[in-house]
Amino acid sequence: MTDQTKPLAGRLALVTGASRGIGRAVALKFAEAGADIIAVARNRSQGALEELDDRIREFGSNCTIAPLDLKQGDMIDRLGGMIYERWGKLDILVGNAGVLGPISPIGHVAPKDWDEVFAVNVTANWRLIRSMDPLLKLSDAGRAIFVTSGAAAKNKQHWGAYGASKAAVEHLVKTYAAECSINNVKANLIDPGPIRTHMRAQAVPGEDPSTLPTSDQIAPLFLELAASTCEKQGEIVSFYDWAGIKRS
Questions:
Q1: pTM for the complete prediction?
Q2: Structural domain harbouring 200
Q3: Which CATH number fits the domain that encloses residue 205?
């Protein structure tokens, strides 16, 4: 019988973008629920990852920090190999890391900026699926959760690079979910909506952050989709709808 206070006890979760914002909140929520965490973030986030490590251990869970640049796909492959050698499986994958890129007309986006947005938001998640899928299949209930955005469907001016990347992620994850219909892996997406994060402050600098939900508030939704009892497959779950929050 599952301990209701530790629903993720004995499970291993990999969380990208874990040094701050939603990723950090999710890693802590999973650890509180009993999971051991592999926390992935950029190399320059080493200090924040070490602080997260300390917090996770306070919950009695183990943490393995993995500072790496998700644009280096071969490093993702090596991480997959390390996970297999050490644990033999992966129970939960959270593809949360992302970059906003320039908010500007499409014709003004520099090629290097376009490439970075797609490298982090799309290609890295494809590489994660490619490397972690065999490990998720070795779990009795593999769960993959990715982060999308309303920008994928709104076609809002100046949001072309970011919106296009999130539309691509949606297609990627929904296709992966369809391919997982014959095994124990469930793959879904979460649309956070406006959340009080560093990225949101970059995107809308004049907004009052106190009017927005926090990363801690959205973390329980990730926990719900990570549960072995979750039967959702190929869905986009809106946090605002899930939480009953009215959009302004």
A1: 0.96
A2: 12-243
A3: 3.40.50.720
Q: From residue 222, give the alpha-carbon distance in Å to each of 13, 33, 81, 83.
A: 11, 12, 25, 22
Return the amino acid letter for 240. Y
Taking only the tens place, the pLDDT of each residue in 39-48 is 999 877 789 9
Quote the number of domains for the chain.
Answer: 1
Residue 6 lies in a domain: no
Q: Which residues pair with 12 in a beta bridge?
A: 36
Query: Is residue 41 exposed (0-12), middle (13-18) or buried (19+ Cβ within 10 Å)?
Result: buried
pLDDT beyond 80 at 241: yes
Residues with a catalytic annotation lie at: 162
Q: Is 185 exposed, middle or buried (0-12, 13-18, 19+ CB in 10 A)?
A: buried
Q: Please, what is the Cα angle at 37 between 61 and 150, to 5 degrees?
A: 130
Per-residue pLDDT of 107-135, as tens digits, reads 999 999 999 999 999 999 999 999 999 99
Asked if the model's pLDDT at residue 148 lies above 90, the reply is: yes
